[in-house]
Write a structure and sequence with these properties.
This protein is an all-alpha fold and about 180 residues long. The protein is about 70% helix and about 0% strand. The chain has 6 helices and no strands. The longest helix has about 40 residues.
Amino acid sequence: MSRRVQENIIAVAVLAIFIAAIIASMNYGPRARLVPIPIASLGAILTVAQLIYQNFRPDAELQVNLLRFLAKGGAPGSGDEPAGAQADGRNAAAAEAAAFGLKDLAALGVVALLVALMLLVGPYAAVFAFTAGYFVASKQYPVIKALVYALGFAALAYLVFHVVLDVQFELSPIGFGWF
């Protein structure tokens, strides 16, 4: 089976999932359809675009060495790099494997922080504090700009959930639930 056929099978399976989600959502009430239908429709449109793209490009573009792509320049031990580079690649892979656990713990810590903030101060204040903290800690934006963007994002979340969808969040079970 050719690579193009394999890609088409996967894309058609994903498209079938999106279409099934759209069909299943038709039985929901008007408010319940508000999220799944637009998301599944967008996913179906993008999947059809992917099918068109992958079937109208030349076969030469399908020749991708996945190991080379993942290793960013060549798979260790493939013979494409000098012997010193192979040893450096092994050392880098060992260091990355050791750091992998720390990255996982950091990601879990970020999720735990967001959940704790939601329990302590409520969802909208948590969205504001978490977004501002992330922008500042990651040095994505200066403090003032981060606060403005976080306020805008929290206001958007409030508008979408409270005003448009009329979802009333209960007060926080642990803390104050200010917003």
